[in-house]
Specification:
The strands form 9 sheets. Strands 31-32-34-33-37-40-38-39 form an 8-stranded mixed sheet, sandwiched between helices. Strands 9-10-13-12-11-14-15 form a 7-stranded antiparallel sheet, with no helix packed on it. It is mostly beta strands and 621 residues long. The chain is built from 7 helices and 40 strands. Helix 2 packs across helix 7 and helix 5 packs antiparallel against helix 7. The protein is flat.
């Protein structure tokens, strides 16, 4: 009897298990596909969902979501979802999810797909040519993408969230106003080729357009107008205009009238000066019944009196006979006597007027500070007076330039002289053309001297940035004759055939001392100036050398210390490991008695003026 009971219970349990299995994994559950979302889900728990795969994903992909995770591993999901992999056709499709896509424990679903959304459009009214076109769907759709096509041009359509509407941008189609077009609505699933789901005819609206006016957006009005006019492309029946001053809410008193294609906005009184306004034309109706696509808005500004907008010189380095143009934002009155309003102090100048400019023609000396002054009250050509004055301080150029000779190729050899009198300190660079860093440093030094005339009060400074311009242009150590200019000076032991940094050079020292025009000119300049101290800049070596025991030795030590270079004044050969004959600095020292020093920069091309600035200045004292 007990054995019979056990068999009965076993059979019952097996039967229940079979029924549960059939209910969960044999009998498919229906699921109605929604076009309103990319996935359609139903509540259906799945144990160990990570092991489950879609049995056949040709039409639909089955996935799970929600549920329970432990330590990053999903134990249970609560929802089962389907997502179409192809364009869903109407009807029913059996899909399944099972462990490893097997036949056992399959969760089977019948996906019921209704008809695809229908597209509708009311073409009974003309539409604007460049706004958005709205299409109506019979249901929301997130599965398909839509585009419109006209004359082989297409534009995208976007679904409006939560609504069965599509918004299509017409602007890329560049439709003309007042034209009829054949419109096609295209629908596609993912990357599939699109299909035409609607064909219809549309007509664009012919809008009235303002084609010009007496003021444009952003204009500044310098005159004293009593009205503004605007022209349209059609005869008009009516128009409204509203003028508002910026920062206020009340309208400026005006009257608006139309005649043929012209709108006239007349001011009740003269507009205040230096104010900003916005004019809006709306409520326009043309004779044919059309109107503006949107209100026509133009912002403008009324000027004050003349204002200075620019001056033709900087704060320094002005030529002693410069023509300085002070430019105003508008034409000036030709009837006003400006002699009591315009002045210059610190220098003399002739003052004239020319349309929208006041011209100062200087006649003064070097390094002269001066100030230009224009008082308020200057009248414009519309007799509107300026309400603010203007001053500008500057200084004339502090140096003179002289051409002391010409190179083999005919390039000018230029020296810059600063200061009116006193002992001379001379700086030279680029005797070797491939040492452009020395030329660049000297040019920056001239800029510093020009900007700071107090550096050379009671003294003079002469700078020759480029001794060898032909070599700099060709990036060669020698001049255009192939001569090393720093071996061409009449020193004891001068030789024509020299050893240089790159080997032996026949006639590298020239055919005779001072055979080269650059050396001749420099020798003449240096001898005539006879500076208290000469600094010659070269590259490369990161060293400074002066006359052992001479006047320049202390300066060489100071310069080297300030820039972090080696002082080789008392080193054998001055720190150079090759024989040097006919050197410029040897000639200045031994033959002219000029204290001289050589600065070898750390790079052929690169230099840092800020690194050398203080040392260059220190050599003046």
């Amino acid at each position: 009897m007990r054995s019979l009971d056990r068999r009965t219970w076993a059979i019952a349990l097996i039967g229940v298990g079979i029924l549960i299995y059939i209910g969960l994994w044999i009998v498919p559950r229906p699921i109605s596909l929604s076009y309103a979302s990319e996935r359609t889900c139903i509540g259906w728990p799945t144990f160990l969902p990570g092991m489950h795969k879609t049995v056949d994903d040709a039409k639909f992909s089955v996935s799970t979501e929600g549920g329970l995770r432990i330590g990053g591993f999903q134990i249970l999901s609560t929802r089962t979802c389907v997502m179409p992999m192809k364009s869903p056709g109407s009807g029913s499709t059996l899909v399944a999810l099972s462990p490893f896509s097997g036949w056992f424990f399959q969760q089977r679903m019948i996906v019921v797909t209704g008809d695809a959304p229908r597209v509708n459009f009311d073409n009974s009214k003309p539409i604007p040519a460049s706004r958005t076109l709205q299409l109506v769907l019979n249901q929301p759709d997130k599965l398909y993408t839509y585009r419109i096509r006209i004359d082989q041009k297409t534009a995208s359509c976007l679904g409006i969230s939560g609504k069965a509407l599509l918004s299509c941008n017409l602007a890329p189609l560049k439709l003309l106003q007042g034209k009829q077009y054949q419109l096609e609505v295209l629908r596609a699933f993912q990357s599939d080729s699109p299909s035409v789901v609607l064909k219809t005819t549309i007509t664009t609206l012919t809008a009235t357009t303002i084609v010009g006016g007496s003021v444009n957006g952003g204009d500044t009005i310098y005159a004293k107008p009593t009205a503004l006019t605007f022209t349209t492309d059609k005869p008009l029946k009516h128009a409204d205009a509203l003028l508002v001053e910026e920062g206020t809410t009340s309208a400026v008193a005006t009257t608006t009238s139309v005649k043929d294609k012209v709108i006239t906005v007349t001011f009740a009184s003269e507009l205040p000066r230096e104010k900003s306004y916005t004019l809006k034309v709306s409520g326009l109706e043309a004779v044919d019944g059309s109107s503006l696509i949107e209100p026509y808005v133009v912002a403008f500004h009324t000027s004050g009196g003349p204002k200075v907008t620019s001056v033709s010189v900087g704060r320094s380095s002005v030529a002693v006979n410069a023509r300085i143009a002070v430019t105003f934002d508008q034409p000036l009155s030709t009837n006003q006597d400006i002699s009591k309003l315009v002045a210059i102090s610190g220098a003399t100048a002739q003052i004239t007027r020319n349309e929208n400019q006041i011209i100062y023609t200087l006649s003064t000396g070097l390094c002269t500070p001066f100030t230009l002054t224009i008082a308020k009250g200057v009248l414009s050509s519309y007799d509107i007076a300026s309400t603010v004055g203007w001053t500008y301080s500057s200084r004339t150029i502090c140096h003179t330039t002289s051409v002391y000779g010409y190179s083999v190729r005919g390039r000018a050899l230029v020296a810059y002289t600063f200061g009116a009198g006193g002992p001379i300190t001379m700086y030279v660079g680029a005797i070797h053309g491939n040492e452009s860093s020395s030329s660049g440093l000297m040019k920056s030094w001239t800029d510093d001297l020009e900007a700071n005339p107090s550096l050379y009060t009671g003294r003079r400074v002469v700078v020759v940035p480029t001794i060898n311009p032909d070599g700099v242009a060709a990036n060669t150590r020698t001049n255009a004759h192939g001569v090393n200019l720093n071996r061409n000076f009449p020193t004891d032991g001068w030789v024509s055939d020299i050893n240089d940094t790159d080997g032996h050079h026949a006639r590298g020292g020239g055919s005779a001392p001072l055979s080269e025009p650059e050396a001749q000119a420099l020798a003449s300049l240096t001898a005539g100036l006879h500076p208290r101290l000469l600094l010659s800049f070269h590259a490369v070596g990161s060293l400074v050398t002066g006359d052992p025991g001479g006047y320049s030795a202390g300066y060489a030590a100071k310069y080297a210390s300030m820039v972090g270079y080696s002082d080789t004044t008392y080193s054998s050969g001055g720190g150079f490991d090759y024989d040097i004959t006919g050197a410029y600095e040897t000639w200045t020292t031994t033959k002219q008695g000029i204290p001289s020093m050589v600065v070898e920069l750390g790079s052929y091309g690169y230099y840092s003026f800020s690194h050398h600035q203080a040392a260059l200045r220190a050599m003046l004292n």
